[in-house]
Amino acid sequence: MVDLKNSADYTEAGVRSRTPHVHAKEPAIPRPAGWMYKRARVGPVVLPWYASPMAQLLIVSIVCFLCPGMFNALSGLGGGGMVNPDVNNSANVALYSTFATVAFFAGTIANRLGIKLTLSFGGLGYCIYASSLLCYDHTSNAGFVIFSGALLGVCAGLLWTAQGAIMMSYPPEDTKGRYISIFWMIFNLGAVLGSLIPLGQNLNNSGNKVGDGTYVAFIVLMFLGAVLALFLVDSKNVIRNDGSKVIVMKHPTWVTEIRGLYEVLRDDTYIVALFPMFFVSNWFYSYQFNDVNLARFNIRTRALNNVLYWLSQILGAWTFGYALDIQIISRSARAKVVLVILFIITMGIWGGGLAFQKPYTRATVLADGYVKLDWTSDGYAGPLVLYMLYGFFDAAWQTTVYWFMGALTNNGRKTAFFAGFYKAIQSSGSAIMYRLDTLKLPYLNLFASCWALLAGSLVIASPVIIWKIKDHISLEEDLKFSDEAEEDVIATETGFDQKNEGV
After folding, report:
1. Which region among 63-67, 104-108, 311-315, 477-481 has the lowest average model confidence (pLDDT)?
2. What is the pLDDT of residues 217-228, one digit of tens each?
3. Alpha-carbon dihedral 207, 442, 71, 81, rounded to 10 degrees
C-alpha cells in the first residue's frame, strides 16, 4: 500500500544534513501544496517527494542510463560493433567535433530553454545514431553514420550540460560526492546491462560482427530515455529538505545567458586551469575501446570485457563519490587528498598498461594468422584485470572532476556553464584522439599520450584545487551570478525537520 505523506518527518534519503545553511533543531514548515511535494511510502521505504533533488537526480540518472549508457555499451564493443572501425572512428570525429562546439555554449541554451527540454532533445540523437549503425550494416551508407555522429554531438552537448547542472547544483554542499556517485553508478549500470545484450546474443559467436537484434534493442531503449526526460520538473520548482531552492535566473533571456557565458570566463578565470583535466577525461576511450578491446579480443570476449569495464566504473564511482563526502576532514583537505590519490593511481594503473601494450603493434594485429584472444585463452586473466582497472580509473577521474566543479559553486546557472565547458573540452580531446587512431598512429604512441596528459593535467590543476576550493561557499557569493535575492531561494520560514536529511 502506498501512503502519501506531506509531513517533514520523512526526509529525502535518511541521513542528517550538515549543510552550513541549515540550523539544527528548527521546527518544520509545510512544503507547497501539490502532488510533486508529497511523499510516498512503499512498505518500509519512504520515497523522496517528486520535486526533491534526489528524485530529480534519479530521473536524470535513468535517462542517462538509457541514452549515453547504452551508447557506451555499444562503443565499448569497439568500432560501434562493426568489424572495420574506420567509419565509426570518422563518425566519432564528427560527433566530438560538434559536441565540443555546441557544449561550450550549451549552458546558455540550457539556462534559456530549461533543463527538461534540453535533456529530452539531447536524448533523441542517441537513437538516431544507433539506427545509422544498423543501416550501415545492411547498406554500407557511411555518410548516414557520419551525419548521425555529427547530430549526436549536438544532442549530447545539450544532454550532458543539463545533466551536469542538476548533479552539481541540486544537492546540498555536503552530499555532492554521493549525488555524483549515485548518478554515475546508475548511468554506468545502463552500460553494464546494455553490454549484456551483445554478450547474450554473441555468447556462442566467436566471430567479430554484431547482430541486428543488438542494434534494435539499443534503439528502443535510447528512445525511451529521451521520452523520460520530459517527466523532469523545472529547476525553479525543486525544493531541498531544508526548504531552500536551486539558484537560477528568474527571468533568463538569450541576451542574459550569452552575457553570462562571458562573465563566467571573465570572473572565474581559474576554471581554465581545470581544462586539461577536462580535455583528457575521455581522451583514452578510443585507445581502450579500439586499440585494446577491439585489437586484442574476439566479439564475445569484447562483450564480456565491456560488462566488467562498466561494472568497475560503478565500483570506482561508489568508492570515490562517498569518500569525497567524508566529514571527519574538511572539504578543502579532502580536495588535496584526492588530488594525491588520483596521481598515485594514474601512475600505477597506466604503468601496468605499459607492460600490456609493449608486446603488440598494429602490424602484429593485422598480420595473417593473427588470432584474437578468447576468454578461454591462456593468459586472459591479466589483460582482463587491467581493463577493469581502466574502467575503475575512468569513474574515479570523472567523479572527482565533477566534485571539484561542484565545490567551486552552488549556483545552478554557473554549474550549467561549468558543465558545458567540461563536456566541450572533453569532447575536443575525444575528437582529436579518434582522429589520431583513424590515422593509424602506433598503439604505443597513443598509449603514451594518455598517460602523459593524465599526469600533466593533475599538475596544472593543482593550484586551483589547493587554493580555490573552500570548506563552504556563502549564499551571498552564490547569489552574485543570478537575478534572485536571498528570499527567493531560502525557506520563508524556518527549515524542515532535519533529523533524517541527507543522501
Report:
1. 477-481
2. 889 999 999 999
3. -20
Structure-block grid coordinates of residue 66: 538509457
Closest CA relative to residue 219, chosen from 104, 288, 113, 134: 134
3-state class (DSSP) for residue 45: strand
**Three cell numbers written together for 489:** 531561494
Q: Which of 292, 491, 464 is nearest to 386 (CA)?
A: 292
Beta strands of 156-276 (E only): which ranges? none
Are the C-beta atoms of residues 325 and 17 closer than 8 Å to each other?
no
**What residue type is 424 in one-letter code?**
A
- What is the grid cell recorded at 190? 545502463
The DSSP H or E segment spanning 139 is helix 115-139
Longest dimension (CA), the chain: 76
pLDDT of residue 204: 65
Helix-strand-coil percent breakdown of the chain, rounded to 5? 70, 5, 30
Angle at 418 between CA 90 and CA 392, to 5 degrees: 65
**259-289 pLDDT tens trace:** 888 898 999 999 999 999 999 999 999 999 9
By DSSP bridging, strand 2-5 and strand 39-42 are antiparallel
- The DSSP letter of residue 289 is I
DSSP letter for 3, please.
Answer: E
Cell of 443: 598503439
pLDDT confidence of residue 215: 84
Q: Which of 231, 206, 213, 203 is nearest to 130 (CA)?
A: 213
369: left (phi over 0), alpha (psi -120 to 50) or beta: left
